[in-house]
## 1
Amino acid sequence: MSFFNDFSQTFSQISKSATGKVKDMSSVSKINKEIEESTNELNNLLNMLGRKYYEKFASSPDPEMADICLSISDLCGKINTLQAEADSIKANAYCPACGEKVAPGDAFCANCGHKLIV
Ligand SMILES: [Zn+2]
């Protein structure tokens, strides 16, 4: 009889312990989700702060920020150059099948119907 009592008591303890662990994991998941949301919000605010700083002070930045502001300006220039290059390619595209000039964004050649966008 004692064996069964011990067994049921032990089983009950294991069961409570397992339930506690599930609860702990559920709490950890909730906490992790809140950490992730707060981290995203923090990153958005830091991004906004950086943009505002750049817009206001890029022309005469604090010496500590000068390198970062210069890198941002360089990247903006690079992006504009790449965008102009992509626009130019799109504006001067020709159908590979018939050689006719095609309009930017066209899925098919208006002349021969060749599929242009994969
Ligand atoms: Zn064509």
## 2
Amino acid sequence: MLRIERHDDVTRLHFSTWRSRRAGYSVSCFAVRGMVVDAAFDDAGPELLGWIRANKPEGVIVTHAHDDHGGNAELLARSGVPMWMAPDTETLLGTPQVRGWHRTWAWGGMPLLHTPFKRFEPRGLEIIDARGHSPDHYVVWDPQTETVFAADLFLGVKVRVAHPVHREDVRQQIGSVRKIAALKPKRVFDAHRGLLKDGIALLHAKADWMEETVGAIDQRIDEGWDDAAIAKNVLGNETLFTYVTFFDWSRANFVASVRKTHGARSASR
Ligand SMILES: [Zn+2]
């Protein structure tokens, strides 16, 4: 299902399927300045392509290689739609990834990007490195309207779960959230929540909460606690969601990510 929402110069393309809605998932692409930010998930492919054929944007910017943002990269490549993506995103989209069944259920497949595609330069928009959520996470900045298309930078203030450590770096994420908040964006569009009300305050609240939480975890690591005990003490019990996703998203992953960079933190002090 595609729902269109207009915000002056920005059009939100809000995609979901009955299966993704049952899991509480949906994702949005945003059309701005004749370009589209993100390529949604596999099952949304026909609707996305239909919209692109009708509206003829100059190209599609893929913010990162997750299946709900780059899930149609191969379809767009085969359909001759120009794309911009960072080299690391391109590499990841061409490499098979381990995906939890809940992602396949909600989003559909993850066709690998193997077709050479037309490239375009997103003129008038800036791409900003905002890694942490994934090793290849970028956000899109419109300097004229001071608008940020934040992809998965925000998601929520208190996101207590993280992906496994090889894919998510919680400490790096704090720096990225602070960096984007420092731009003082007038509008923040989140890929899952749409236009955020008071986006700057939410970004600061997120960075503050994360910093405080990471600080509490660092302290317990110094005291010799193990990951499971820290996760329970600082973040609370794992929820059903963690078990349903077979630990793809878990509080233990959050702690593990903090532990992985704990040494570097001590060395830099
Ligand atoms: Zn993501």
